[in-house]
User: Fold these one by one.
Assistant:
Number 1:
Amino acid sequence: MSASYDAVVIGGGPGGATAALLLARAGWSVALVERKAFPRRKVCGEYLSATNLPLLDRLGVGDRFRERAGPEVRRVGLFAGTKMLDASLPRVANGWGRAWGRDQLDTLLLDRAAAAGTEVWQPWSAIGLNERGDHYECHVESQDTGQVLPLEAAVVILAHGSWETGTLPTQAGQRMPRPGDLFGFKAHFRDSRLAPELMPLLAFPGGYGGMVHTDDGRVSLSCCIRRDELSRIRAKATCAAGAAVFDHIRENCRGVRAALDAARLDGGCLAAGPIRPGIRLRIRGGVFPVGNWAGEAHPVVAEGISMALQSAWLLTRRLIAWKEAGAERTGLEAVGRSYARAWRRNFAPRLHAASVIAHWAMHPTAVASVLPVLRGFPGLLTWGAHWTGKATRVVTPVRSF
């Protein structure tokens, strides 16, 4: 037996849950397939820029975000070697960005999608996707029982992780290891001395990272490090990989040492990867990508959650208009072209900026050559935040919804 829907969403993170919620509210029958049980922790910097507040309000979670998230982030910084610089973040009219743990954010969004009428298949994995005439057939497998069922829909939205391998034709396969492959690490700390309103970029040999105050009095430290540097660190370390990476960061960033001098680890260290930054905006027929599968910026700019939420908004408003106009199959091509143009206009500059900053931050010689300029003109950090999308408005505020 098969179940039929207007749309199947693969992936229950911020992009997938947002897409499902908006479509369900518009009267679509939606299935969302998520392979992990929630709540779950995630390798992520957890920061959401203030440009997301209008969309969070539209989704009905803005008040909860303001109540539970960490303190307002008003300053951007740079910790590199012995240097600690900071400058103002660009102000957005509706407030300041804040950080919120993915275990809480993702669970809340998925719950709201379910309350709006989305049928949530969790924990189930999408293991096959085939086109069948005027619809798609997505085979899903229960993580608990191994049962396999087909789900049918005219539209499929891909919101699965970019580094996850699998049997879907859209998922990345295994590839040969490369020295420049990036691996992500993340941990929470308590009793940190990091200034509450500061979000510094961490520049260290072979990698980059960031710190920010998140919910419940915790500080999140997330980073990416090259495979070759990780191998070098692990070869001389007597501890686990995550601990070795954080020791490497402390050794090369005085600001991190000062912030974490009296701090204690809260929970274990998470790892993921290799991550694959870049644009993957491939649209065919009724299959549309959002979030990291559409395109992934280097995490150095802390725009991953923003891009996931906002790309779902850009896509669903076009899909809703398509259905209201009669849902002609041939019209999906126009939806895809319009979405791709809007996606590139809003997000491609962030990806390009992130790539430049990431490659600069990983090379100590390059960082050292620019530090004198940044010390003399700290406003360049503010300009860099503008450049990476911290003030790019995608969704406009509304009075009621």
Number 2:
Amino acid sequence: MPDLTVPVPGATELPAYLARPSVGSGPWPGVVLIHDAVGMTTVTREHSDRLATAGYLTLAPDLYSRGGLIKCLVSTLSAVASGQGQAYEDIAASRAWLRQSDQCTGRVGVIGFCMGGGFALMTAAQGFDASAANYGQVPRDLAALNGACPIVASYGAKDRLLGSAGDRLKRALTERNIANDVKTYPRVAHGFMDRYNLGPLSPVLRVAGFGYDHASADDAWGRILRFFAVNLS
């Protein structure tokens, strides 16, 4: 699947990865996939390809592509909490690109992991039809969830970064009558859906509170795809 560029305000272009379903000729529902704090990696592409295999035209913008890694990392992480910044323009441009594509049905969801999960929650009320937040930071100002689209979210009970974020999100969505499927997996920690191959460092990652878990990841993906099938069809 090809890399491409998406036009954004200011006459600049945003590099992105496009994963297109291999079965049928479309149009297909679209999904904007927002990468984690590590950036555009093989894991990001694998997640995108998995969604494409399930029948979704998936666009993953590289939020670190302009300004250098360190500068972009700091500003993008800050944007998750503030609700403002270039990252939101990039996400909106990616959504618009999908909606305007003749390969897309016009129904567009958003999915994110870690940092991207925070963006998936912060943008759930900004024109998407469904949102999937995986171990994403819950908005500090819960008003950001007012009017949000249906949300499916997955967290790990052993996540040392986010604690009881799943419970807080579930309460906030239920209070706002927002359709949701929020699940906290009891035996996993942060990043349990991301299969990073760090070789001998993998045990260190688990001690630090991170790590892939196949059973929980598979269950989470099943919930996401069922949720998207209902809300993006």
